[in-house]
Design goal:
The chain is an alpha/beta fold and 359 residues long. The chain is built from 13 helices and 14 strands. The N and C termini lie far apart (59 Å). The structure holds adenosine-5'-triphosphate (ATP). Adenosine-5'-triphosphate binds next to strand 2 and helix 2. It is found in: Cell inner membrane.
């Protein structure tokens, strides 16, 4: 039973224009109690928000709880505690009957597109509409629209067995969008696809997000996927979120572990012992030239060596992590100078130094 007061608040929240997050997961816990096993806590105090027209990636190693989180968000599994609000409405309070209506707001794409092999592409896409009792004429129109959206108009009468992995996934996306959901939940949607197909599926999800104003939660273990499309990133480890934030902010945070993994720096093999080493981090608009290395040399009248660099185009900006080395310049002075160029710098700990510290 939903208390009357809570219902009122839910209704006010549902229609309020200032509710900027389409999906709000708050203090979510999931425990399992199997007869064969002891009490298992799989998710612990998960707090996660997905804004309208944005992509939040949930990244985590095997066993970290990604599938369980996905099942909780689509309410295939009931959370043990906490709330899952879609457009302001808490789904965890709803009865199974109410849930069957509200679940339509969440379209799910799975790793293997799980299509019915004996149904054509058009019939697979039409399934959710059939279950809802939509008329044949309306179904035909909607399926045509969806086929165009995912670029498969010429495959309507093919069977899944006649499609490539990427095409099957496009059918899965069309089916997930059939009921015009507000949220698209992509659960390992590109796992097992080659890099080119992965890129095309991510481009499609990105385009549909903008055109259909979707909020996307993308569950993945692939770093490349996150780099390519995520606006926000949350890292799940042993059932807890250990880091989260905007993709670019995490990369530009020198203390972020996921930032280092998203934009790693390869340490050169041989580093002269007398070099002062700085790790630098910066971003600038992709059409802006950066001449900070020249400026640095001129300022200190000393040569500077660029020893390693990883430069990526991320969220329409150039983001770089680099290692520079120089002699005869005070490192604090160098760090202060770089700051005037909006470059963050810190003294670089070589692996040899790090292992000395550890021992
Ligand atoms: N029904 C269940 N009963 C008990 N434990 C479970 C149940 N389902 C999942 N778990 C446990 O929860 C943990 C997280 O599992 P989950 O499948 O969510 O992880 P994952 O991050 O999706 O892993 P993978 O990437 O390998 O699919 C695992 O230790 C798993 O054994």
């Amino acid at each position: 039973m939903v208390p009357a007061l809570t219902n009122q608040y839910q209704i006010i929240f549902e229609f309020s224009p200032w509710c900027q997050h389409m999906l709000q997961i708050e203090h979510l816990y999931k425990n399992y109690q199997n007869p064969a096993t002891e009490h298992v806590q799989v998710l612990k105090d998960i707090n996660l928000y997905v804004a309208k027209k944005s992509i939040t990636a949930v990244l985590g190693p095997s066993g970290s709880g990604k599938s369980t989180l996905s099942k909780c968000v689509s309410l295939l599994e009931r959370p043990s505690q906490g709330s899952i609000k879609v457009d302001g409405l808490d789904l965890t309070y709803l009865s199974e009957k109410e849930l069957s209506t509200h679940r339509r707001n969440i379209g799910v794409i799975f790793q293997s597109s799980s299509l019915l092999g004996r149904r054509t592409v058009a019939e697979n896409i039409a399934l959710p509409l059939h279950y809802l009792g939509v008329t044949d004429q309306a179904i035909a129109k909607r399926v045509q629209e969806l086929l165009e959206n995912v670029g498969l108009s010429d495959r309507a009468h093919h069977y899944p067995g006649q499609l490539s992995g990427g095409q099957k996934q496009r059918v899965g996306i069309a089916r997930a969008l059939a009921l015009k959901p507000k949220i698209l939940l992509a659960d390992e949607a590109t796992s097992g696809l080659d890099p080119e197909t992965t890129q095309s599926i991510l481009n499609l999800i990105n385009r549909l997000k903008d055109e259909l104003e979707l909020s996307v939660m993308l569950i993945t273990h692939e770093m490349d996927v996150v780099r390519q499309v995520a606006d926000q990133v949350a890292v799940l480890n042993a059932g807890q979120i250990i880091e989260q934030g905007a993709l670019q902010q995490l990369i530009l945070n020198p203390d972020s572990t996921i930032g280092k993994q998203l934009l790693p720096l390869k340490q050169p093999q041989h580093l002269a012992a007398d070099l002062t080493l700085l790790e630098v981090l910066y971003s600038h608009a992709s059409d802006q030239e950066q001449s900070w290395l020249n400026d640095f040399s001129q300022q200190f009248n000393q040569g500077v060596q660029l020893l390693a660099a990883n430069i990526e185009e991320i969220s329409k900006a150039t983001v770089a992590r680099a290692l520079i080395g120089f002699k005869g310049i005070d490192s604090d002075q160098a760090i202060r100078f770089l700051k005037t160029h909006n470059i963050q710098a810190q003294v670089y700990q070589t692996r040899a130094n790090n292992s000395q510290t550890c021992h």
